[in-house]
Specification:
Its main location: membrane. With 204 residues, the protein is α+β, with helices and mostly antiparallel strands. 46% of the residues lie in helices and 23% in strands. Strands 3, 4, 6, 7 and 8 form a 5-stranded antiparallel β-sheet that branches. A hairpin with a 5-residue loop joins strand 3 and strand 4.
Length: 204
């Protein structure tokens, strides 16, 4: 019985040892960088070693000099980036990335330290070219709106003029008929009536 229990214990330890070897053989993510850094958000990106059976990632996010951690984990994905949200402005953060395989997780990557900018710094960092492009876009939109208004007004005026011309043509066409009716009525009124009969009276 003791030999059986010892064999079972060694078997369990051997299996655990194999699983730890597989997990340790998984390389840590490489080239971890912070992109699209904003006041309240950022994007962390990384690379993985070719051939690693990676099925997901795990990210630990921590404020510098603060022990509270945020843990982000996602599996069944091949993406090499993750958005960090709800960050505080003008605050330093430390980020580690780990790869996840069917047999376990990789060692953590080298820590990446970054600081979120202030709102004023973000506004000041906007280049003049970006401001000029934005102003040009707004100007183009205003001009387009003005052109649309002008075209609508011209169409309305064209419709009013066409309606006026149509009414004028109708009135003009009706004038000869009205003149003929007036002439006929005037001729009838000027023709004297001839008596067909009556009594002649004489003075006695």
């Amino acid at each position: 019985m003791e030999k059986t229990a010892l064999s079972a214990t060694l078997l369990v330890l051997g299996c655990l040892g194999v699983s730890w070897v597989h997990a340790d053989s998984l390389s840590a993510p490489l080239n971890v960088t912070i992109k699209e850094l904003k006041v309240n958000s950022a994007l962390v990106a990384w690379d993985i070693s070719e051939g690693d059976p990676v099925i997901g990632f795990a990210i630990t996010q921590q404020k510098k000099d603060v022990h509270m951690l945020r843990f982000i984990q996602e599996v069944n994905t091949t993406t090499h980036s993750c958005a960090l949200w709800e960050l505080e402005e003008d605050t330093e953060y430390i980020v580690h990335v780990q790869s996840i395989s069917p047999s376990g997780t990789s060692p953590p990557s080298e820590p990446v330290l970054f600081r979120t900018p202030k709102e004023a710094e973000k506004m000041a960092s906007t280049s003049p070219d970006e401001v000029m492009i934005e102003q040009v876009g707004q100007t183009a939109q205003l001009r387009a709106g003005e052109l649309i208004i002008i075209v609508v007004v011209l169409i309305m005026w064209a419709g009013v003029i066409a309606l006026f011309c149509r009414q004028y043509d109708i009135i003009k066409d009706n004038e000869p008929n009205n003149n003929k009716d007036k002439a006929k009525n005037s001729s009838e009124c000027s023709t004297p009536e001839h008596p067909t009969g009556g009594l002649l009276r004489s003075k006695v």
